[in-house]
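Working notes for the structural subgroup meeting. M.R. asked for a predicted model of this chain before we commit to crystallization trials. I am recording the input and output together here so anyone reviewing the notebook later can reproduce the run.

Input as submitted:
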Amino acid sequence: MRLVIVTGMSGAGKTTALKTLEDMGFYCADNLPVLLIEKFAELVMNGQSEKQDIALGVDVRSGEELPNLEIIIRKWRENKYPFSILFLDSSDEVLIKRFKETRRSHPLSRNGRVEKGIELEREKLAFLKKEADQVIDTSRLLTKELRHELENLYSEADGRSSMFITVVSFGFKYGIPADADLVFDVRFLPNPYYVEELRFHTGTEQAVQDYVMQGGTGEEFLKKLNDLLEFVIPKYEQEGKTQLVIAIGCTGGRHRSVTIAGEVFKRLTESGRYEIRLEHRDAGKDGGK
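Returned structure, recorded in token form:
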């Protein structure tokens, strides 16, 4: 279990950082009152809360309570509490540009110039930057690059990806899944629907699988599909995508798509890199084709 205080300059990417950590399994809370932060963190670190990584967002919105955080941090350091501080920074020029582009006011310059708000914010957060275990300058970082930096810093998985993949079988007669990212049509494979003793069984059963995979076409398709997925999944990760839905379809979603989806799930699972879920959306519906 880890506790990370996420802080930094307004407009430097704290919201993106918290969302990224949340995707990585952290429980994230933003802008808690400072005194509640102390109580909450102590409960967590004393084992009185659920065993889960925690990320707490703190910034100048804490107002007059913010200086109290310096005292709390000093106390935690002395007591050797296992926590770290992530500080997100950016140049004044970039911060000003970001505020102008989003047309949002700086929290310390509601009725004044953004420059003055940034200057005052730097003064108020100076102690946090000094105490930070990690400082990331986002001036030249794209959102996907910041996410990659955070994954490198906080991912505990050994060689594992943060991508969550859902493999879903479906029937075209019932429509393509609305959330599908990749759709593959396997209606070219042998169809068990036309075999009376297999018609009302599904692709989760060995007899149906054997029929679908006969002749070698199914195996050849799986090899080519596997090559494609090995190529495109890392590309999606580089773009900052954290969830991918791979949809495999046949006519009724009962035989061929279920068989192939099961094999895709098995092969991706064997890679050991991804968290994967398998869903047969239409397998329990009528016999279809």
